[in-house]
Design brief:
Helices cover about 75% and strands about 5% of the residues. It is built from 10 helices and 2 strands. The mean pLDDT is about 90. Pfam families: ABC2_membrane_4.
Length: about 250
């Protein structure tokens, strides 16, 4: 990958309010996570499964917030090429449309990785310092959940980059982001087989905790399913972007 192309993508972000979108994503998920434990009548900071309350909050907050805002990030990063005929301009300097998409994915992927991990760490720190949860942090489960959500976020981001690059009208991409949010939330009530049918359904599959019976309980994480999604998405993204290379800018 051309490191200069990736650097150029970071330079383009200066005028795209990426930082503002990132802050909204982090604050929204943090607020929803805290609301989950505060609104629960059975939550207690001393309870053995107290951390499951925050994990359940993130399991709900990330599907509510990230799908649409990932679409916004991808759309804004791609739309500048549509508006300024950047595809043709970059092609004259030797950077193909597919190469630009891959550069944009790397640049935005680093941002999304920082947002996802930062959100997870902030919720963890808030649970310890503000909520005052006493039991030890389930680091392995917490890290596994963060990794699963990161993988799904990157897959959804890659999909939106392809859609935004192929379709000039970015309202279509944003509409897909809204639909993705709906699918991510409602997939939590669907059978696991149905949740596997769309990338957004994997948000539901990767729930780390939920309210069951009289309290929050930890849920097993579907590592094989998430790994399979990542592999398939990587192959599809690579094939499609290399096809873009052979199309006219």
């Amino acid at each position: 990958m051309n490191t200069r192309a990736v650097s150029n993508e970071f330079a383009k972000m200066r005028h795209l309010r990426v930082g503002l979108v990132a802050v909204v994503m982090v604050v929204a998920v943090l607020g929803l996570s805290l609301y989950t434990v505060v609104s629960s009548p059975t939550f207690s900071p001393e309870a053995p499964g107290a951390w499951n309350g925050l994990l359940a909050g993130m399991s709900l907050g990330i599907p509510l917030v990230f799908p649409l805002l990932l679409a916004v990030l991808a759309s804004r990063q791609i739309d500048i090429e549509h508006q300024g005929n950047g595809w043709l301009l970059q092609a004259t300097s030797g950077l193909t449309p597919g190469g630009m998409c891959r550069a944009k994915f790397i640049a935005l992927g680093l941002i999304v990785t920082a947002i996802t991990i930062g959100t997870s760490l902030l919720v963890l720190a808030t649970g310890k310092l503000l909520v005052g949860i006493i039991p030890p942090v389930p680091f392995v489960h917490w890290a596994g959940f963060t990794g699963c959500m990161l993988a799904v976020n990157l897959v959804v981001l890659a999909g939106h980059i392809l859609v935004s690059a192929k379709i000039d009208n970015q309202l279509v991409a944003l509409g897909i982001g809204i639909l993705g949010t709906i699918l991510a939330v409602f997939s939590q009530g669907l059978p696991a087989v149905a949740a596997h049918l769309t990338p957004w359904g994997y948000y539901a599959l990767a729930m780390a905790a939920d309210y069951r019976g009289s309290g929050f309980v930890a849920l097993p994480l579907p590592y094989p399913s998430i790994a399979a999604l990542a592999v398939v998405a990587s192959v599809v993204f690579t094939i499609i972007t290399y096809r873009f290379d052979h199309q006219e800018a």
